[in-house]
């Protein structure tokens, strides 16, 4: 019986081991198949995204382009992602971080598709007009007697500027373009054909002037969306999770192998098969991990390998080498030739760097990176040497020489990749061969933007282009519009309406704020002179402390008797209110004309009760940052209720809720005892007063 019992036990153990083996084998096969599909789909999605970028690149050099292929590729990317979503083994909790990466990728893909739709419209507009401008000029010279040489010169100058800016994809090259267009606009013709020609030419030229500046940022923005990075992140995370699973399965395989010792030979064969499968899975993960860090075309380390090579405790420098006009090589010789040039370039760089031991990476497209460790070679000398080496090397395709020029950007400032890329972009604008990163480049750009805005503001002040808009304020008890807040707007020469957030800070720094305030006082008084409506004008602390502004205000109050009873002066609630004596004096002088004083944006970050207690305040305006969250944030509602209760207790009976943007918010602020409301639910700012005083 004991021997028979042992046989039964051995048979049961063998059966259990066999069942366990078959279960493990099927699970391993399923995992291997699923992992292969995920990796394949991710690789295909990355390849198709690159093809989308190539399609977008090609649109920049074609007059008309069929975007069906772009949308087909994006749809195919989504289909491949959908195939991943239906895999059952990915439903486990350990894959949740992987799904978060894929969700981020899908968001970026959606953003990219929307930007492509916008870009397609801009591309059609700009390229259509760019193609017409030189043809129109040629037609004029051909069909009309050139009696007016000045007009022909203006046409030629406009055509040259359009050609240069569009081919360089740089709207800043349209220097003097507006002046040329104005001269063409001012030109008078007796001949109706010439007059009609001039109108058609101007229409196309203005389209280029208006949309080229939008076109280039949208174009570059599409290519800068980090979809490849999101995909690589998902792939790396999937590889890490899969590797852990492989280790777990491998351990389970070892236990089964021990259980199979002494069992049937068939079980041993099955165990060998299982071990072989596990080795295949491990080899696959090793190969996939290597593929995630190696560029498939050149064999160099890729961008992710570069990021792993960065160190925080050691000085490093990055040289980015870029082929000038690489897209022209692809367009002229074909993408196969472009790939061949990249492979040849990688070989030349490897040969040049082999004795030095610096890391060489393909960072994407035609960008190659050289990571120089601190304390070794001089990065600037190395960059210049590599430029010379590349430009003296012989590159060819199908035995045809392909001339190559390169530029190089150098940075020693973290983050290396971003700062080196900034330098490379600066090189493209300056036509230089080499440039080292200068941290002041960004500051200089901001300074140029500020100077440009100051010019716009000065032109608006001189050309009467400072415009008041009127925001209605409703009495919550009577449901009538009884008051308007006067808001400043600036109209540019091209018809763009600038909002205060876009220019007020520059106006203050440029000492133009006082001019804007005086214009707003003058135009607001004029708008409400023949009405019985109440209105308010915004004053900054600098305005109140500026004698020229305050004397202008009180002089206008003297000239318009009675208007002060309808005027509210809104002071921005700010920690900058330090000179209470000067502010209090201004409030007392305003009271002589029966003006009301309001504290604007109360509750916006820094709220000082001293403003309410020491100044004779009539109106308190609760900031929109609190009002907009009143329905979702109980703390915001509590803060608003506390402000309202306190204001009523200290004698402020006129409280205004700003940013009332929905019917629900309006009902809530009315329930809380707030007397007035303003916001888009009540009415948007308009350049004229509403015809109806009662809210519809």
Give keywords.
globular, alpha/beta, 23 helices, five-stranded mixed sheet, 12% strand, 696 residues
Structure write-up:
By secondary structure, the chain is an alpha/beta fold. Helices cover 61% and strands 12% of the residues. It contains 23 helices and 16 strands. The chain has helices at residues 2-59, 68-85, 96-143, 149-168, 177-186, 192-224, 227-260, 265-291, 303-309, 326-333, 335-353, 379-392, 416-430, 441-462, 500-509, 513-528, 541-544, 547-559, 580-592, 609-614, 624-627, 634-649, 663-671; strands at 316-323, 359-364, 367-373, 396-397, 400-401, 406-411, 434-436, 466-475, 480-491, 497-498, 534-539, 567-572, 596-602, 619-622, 654-657, 676-677. The protein has an eight-stranded mixed barrel, surrounded by five helices. The longest helix has 58 residues, at 2-59. The chain starts with a helix and ends in a 19-residue tail after the last strand. The model is unreliable at 692-696 (pLDDT under 50).
Short note summarizing the structure:
This protein is of the alpha/beta class.
